[in-house]
């Protein structure tokens, strides 16, 4: 099984429901099923005085931009006027060569560039980028089992590291975790990342660990029922 340090996977969950303060997204993740022809992500510009140029592209789970993406984004570059809405279509190109016994993870990147007026001159422009988790789910896998995958995580501690091992073919998305009753969110670590299919992540914890409580994130972006495990 491939192990990843949990801090290296943290960015995979750092997606927001907006690419800027004004541009709102309809979802923070997309589950693309094998039988689907396309999926749609809706965007809304709530600003009454600012338009945005939106650029979209796909990258792999390591954030390497895909020069030949198995999914087509249309339009890949578009302008959103004030108080307007738009749809980004993600189309199945039919050129995939994915594993059929486990999920595959991509990143859908959205960059928003605000417009400038002549009065603003050479004012610094801050571009905003959001990363949407994009998971390809083969037909052999079910939504029901995906929702229960976090219950099957194997949780162990050796006094130095906490290891979460995933024996399932699904990505398990961790939203919150508490160790010995202390929520790591207090230390800025409430978003820990994903545990890959048939893989593992480790979290440094140099102390006796008695209790682990974790909360996973479901397909729709909602927190699932917390799971608490007593360790010996």
UniProtKB/TrEMBL annotation:
Residue intervals of the Pili assembly chaperone N-terminal domain: 23-141
Query: Has keyword Chaperone?
Result: yes
Where found, per UniProt? Periplasm
Please give the Pfam families that the UniProt record associates with this protein: PapD_C (PF02753), PapD_N (PF00345)
Q: What is its main location?
A: periplasm
InterPro entries per UniProt: Ig-like_fold (IPR013783), PapD-like_sf (IPR008962), Periplasmic_pilus_chap (IPR050643), Pili_assmbl_chap_C_dom_sf (IPR036316), Pili_assmbl_chaperone_bac (IPR001829), Pili_assmbl_chaperone_C (IPR016148), Pili_assmbl_chaperone_N (IPR016147)
Does the keyword Oxidoreductase belong to this entry?
Answer: no
Specify the signal sequence span.
1-21
Residues annotated as domain Pili assembly chaperone C-terminal: 165-222
Q: Which UniProt keywords apply?
A: Chaperone, Periplasm, Signal
Annotated family: Belongs to the periplasmic pilus chaperone family.
Q: Which PANTHER family match?
A: FIMBRIAL CHAPERONE PROTEIN ELFD-RELATED, PILUS ASSEMBLY CHAPERONE
Q: Any idea what this protein is called?
A: Molecular chaperone
The top of its lineage is: Bacteria, Pseudomonadati, Pseudomonadota, Gammaproteobacteria, Enterobacterales
């Amino acid at each position: 099984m491939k192990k990843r340090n949990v801090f290296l996977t943290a960015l995979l969950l750092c997606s927001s429901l907006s690419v800027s303060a004004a541009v709102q997204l309809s979802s923070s993740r997309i589950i693309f099923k094998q039988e689907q022809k396309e999926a749609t992500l809706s965007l809304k510009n709530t600003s009454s005085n600012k338009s945005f140029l939106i650029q979209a592209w796909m990258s792999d789970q390591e954030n390497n931009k895909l020069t030949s993406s198995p999914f087509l984004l249309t339009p890949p570059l578009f302008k959103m006027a004030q108080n307007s809405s738009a749809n980004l279509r993600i189309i199945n190109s039919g050129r995939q060569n994915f594993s059929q016994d486990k999920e595959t993870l991509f990143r859908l990147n959205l960059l928003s560039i605000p417009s400038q007026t002549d009065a603003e001159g050479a004012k610094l422009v801050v571009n905003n980028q959001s990363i949407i988790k994009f998971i390809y789910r083969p037909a052999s896998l079910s939504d029901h089992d995906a929702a229960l995958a976090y219950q099957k995580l194997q949780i162990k501690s050796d006094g130095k590291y906490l290891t979460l091992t995933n024996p399932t073919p699904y990505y398990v998305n961790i939203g919150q975790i508490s160790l010995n009753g202390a929520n790591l969110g207090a230390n800025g670590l409430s978003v820990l990342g994903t545990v890959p299919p048939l893989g593992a992540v480790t979290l440094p914890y140099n102390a006796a660990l008695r209790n682990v409580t974790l909360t996973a994130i479901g397909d729709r972006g909602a927190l699932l029922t917390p799971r608490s495990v007593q360790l010996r």
